[in-house]
Here is the input.
Amino acid sequence: MLVTKELVRDQILAYLNQRITLAQLVDWAENTLNEGELEMRDSETISDILARLGLADVREFGLSWEDCAALLARLGYQPQVEAIPLVA
Here is the structure.
């Protein structure tokens, strides 16, 4: 699997939008870093971000909204917050 900035962005957004758990994000990052083929032109950035996400389940590192926003910015994206009504 080719790991692109867009794929990493999508995983971070899935976490922020509660479509995946922190544990799932960490597992994905660890597995992808070990087994994925990083897109060559962005390999250093992608590798750094995957390594950071892989540590997010360690108490000393954690993963705050600000951390996610900073990681997305490194990928060239800016997160936007939108409130949607709960479905009854």
In short: The beta strands are 2-3, 37-38.
